[in-house]
Amino acid sequence: MSRTVSRDRLTSIHRAPRRAHPRVGVAGGVPRWRHPLVVTTAVVAAGVWLALMAANVLYYTGPHEGALAVFDSPRFNGDNDRSWPEVAGYAAMSVATLAMIGLAVRRRRAVYAAWALVFAVMTADDSYALHERGAKLILQHVSLPSIAGLRPQDAGELGVWAGGGLVLAALVVLAHRRADALGRQDTRRLALLLVALAVFAVGIDMGAELLARVVTGEGALAWLALIESGGELFVMCLIAVTSLAMLLRRTSR
Hints:
Blueprint: H1 2-15, H2 36-60, H3 84-107, H4 110-128, H5 130-141, H6 152-178, H7 181-211, H8 218-248
Helix pairs in contact: 2-3, 2-8, 3-4, 3-8, 4-6, 5-6, 6-7, 7-8
């Protein structure tokens, strides 16, 4: 009889439906958005962004007289190299780079070092116009055709960006495959922000170059440049705040 009971119990256990395991998020995976330093950085970044965009609008609507004449300076035009909006972008990406270095040291994960390299290269490229210089160097040795209406210089810049981007993306992918669950989650967040940045920095920039061939007035091109520089700086600020929030969260390692 004990054998019969034991078989019945085994049968009932065997036939019992399996319960689905609930999905559990990564422990400590949420960045500390409410940390005082993160909140302060976000508020300061938002204030700087709004002030620079307003100054850029005043530059486009100039020339001005009196106190507003200060906004006639080309440094308020975000489409110019070393302008104030670009300098703010350098600062934002430097914060992101330092945050990724801090995460790489604290968590001892190569994926954060890879992201630090990505942000550092982007900052250096913006600061020293590396892809523009690379395109000029290529054109000295190779004759590039006009692709999709783009000038050879623009095509060369796009090629330099694509080549460098592939190398950096490969490093991130390799590090991502060796990362833990938290590192992979952070990579997905940063990758989405990087795609958004590429839309403004590359997509709208190349779109403006194509539009310049069919539009004679400078007004539409100026406002499109404002969207490009403003969107680019906005996403850079998001990257800086997100990286800082990742650094300041509590994790075991």
